[in-house]
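User: Could you write out the 3D structure of this protein bound to iron/sulfur cluster? I've included everything you need below.
Assistant: Certainly. Input first, then the structure.
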Amino acid sequence: MPFVITDPCIGTKDAACVDVCPVDCIHPRKDEPEFATATILYIHPEECIDCGACVPACPVAAIYDSAESTPASQKALVEANAVYRAGEPDAVARAEAIVKSHIETHPDLIAVPPAERAAAHA
Ligand code: SF4
Ligand code: SF4
């Protein structure tokens, strides 16, 4: 099962995970035009090889190792990771719409500082 990026990435987005991913499946990278406007980064579910390197690299514990292990409050972001495709405007817009909806429906979580947000996941 592919790994999943969740909401502690919002407000962090430092791309530390991109630097350690051996198969370049986390996007947008800093050198891609979508990086400036992306709310979070996304893991391509078919390209991820489940190596786990990104998990300890993330300073805010935003990455879960499967859809199943992703907490209930973060399930919508499994779909956001699944639909995102770098360079495909419709896919990018769909993924970002899911993330923005998540922000609107979870103001309690988003109010928590990113470094403490994963601990608040339910
Ligand atoms: S688990 Fe490995 S392959 Fe998958 S996104 Fe993380 S670093 Fe990349
Ligand atoms: S390392 Fe974590 S916070 Fe940084 S971009 Fe990757 S998922 Fe987001």
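The CA atoms of residues 28 and 35 lie 5 Å apart.
User: Perfect, thank you.
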